[in-house]
Design brief:
By secondary structure, this protein is α+β, with helices and mostly antiparallel strands. It is built from 10 helices and 11 strands. It is globular. The relative contact order is 0.15.
Amino acid sequence: MSPTRTVHGRYPNSYTLTTVSYSNYSSISTFNETGEVDFTNLFDDFEDAYTTFEQDAGYILSQNLQDHSARCGLSLAGWKPEKDPAAQAIEWWEMDWEYSVQPELTSHEYSVNTTFYQYSDENNFVIDERGFNAFLKGEASTFLTENDPRLLLDTVVTGISQDDNGITILNDDGSCVHAKFAIFWAFCNLATSPSSLSFQLGSSKASRHLRWAPSLDGEGFHPGSGILFVTVVQSQSYAVEAQDDETTKNEVLGVLRKMFGPDKVPEPIAFMYPRWSLEPWAYGSYSNWPPGTTLQMHQNLRANVGRLHFAGEATSAQYFGFLHGAWFEGQAAGQHIADIVNSVTTTEETNYEILHGTTPEEEYESTNGWQVSPFLTYGFE
C-alpha cells in the first residue's frame, strides 16, 4: 500500500495526498547501445568528487570568493567525464536532471540548495487521482467560495500601471482590476520536460535525448499501466519541443529498442508530451542560478517595484526550484504588504543599485531572503 502524507497541517483532511516513496536510488539499471551494462560503480566516483564540490561551495560563500560554474567546480574536485558516455550518463543523473541544465550553466556556489540539508532526503511521488493541486484547492477553499468572482481563471494580464493611489491590472479581455497592492508570482524558467521516477539510465552516444526512462508500472505506483516516460532538459528539451510528436516517438523507440532489444519494445498505444517552454503560463520549468549570480543580484529580483511585489520559487534565495520556496516567499510578500497596510512598516524591500562581483558573508541575512545558515544541516548530510 502507498503511504499517505499530509502536505499541510492546518487542514489535514483536505490536504492528505496518496503518495509512494521513490527514494531507493540504488535500484538503478544502466544501459548502453548494446543493452544492459553495469557501470553503477561510477556513482561512487561522482559522490566522492561531489563531497569535495560541496565543501568548496561552502568556502566560496564563507570566504567571499569568486563563483564559477558547477562544471569548473566538479573538475577541480576530480570529476572529469570528458567523452566517456557512461560517466556522462552518471553526471546527467546527478546534475542535469536535478538542475534542468548542464553543469556549465549552473553556479557552483549556489548549486548546493539548502533544501537538501534541512528537509528529509525522502522523496514521494504523488499518485493521488485528485492531483497534486488538491492541497492548493483546499487552501483556496478557506477564503474563496464556489465560482468566486474574485478568482479569474483563463485570464491573461496584458499590462500593469500604478500611481500613488493604487495599482491597475489590465487583462486581455478588456477587464481590469484595481487594488492597493499586487503580488506577481515570478517565474525565471528553464526548459525541461517533467521528471519523476527513474530506474533505467542510458549512456549510448545515440541517445541524444533519452537518458532516463522511468516506469510507472511498478508496485505501488500504477501497476499494469505500461506507462513509461522520458526526461530531457535544457537544449535537448528545446530541440524536442521544436519537432513533431512522431519524430520524437521514433527517436525514443529507437533508443529503447537498443537498450532492451527490438522485439521487446512494441509501438505504444498512445504517446504525448508537453511543450513547457511554449506554454504562456509556464514558459519552462523551475528556476536555477547561473554562474556568477550574487545574493544581491537575486535580491533585486525579489524586491518590490512600488506597489507591485514579487514571489514564487524563483525569488527564494535558499529553496529556489522547490514548492516550499514558493510557499515561504508568498508568505513573506503577503506579510510585507499586510505590515504596510497596518502601518507596521513603510520600508521598501532592499534593492541594490550597484551590484558587486561577490557577496560578503555578513549580507547572508533575512533582508536578502537568507533566513538560515547554509551550514545548518539538521542531520541530512
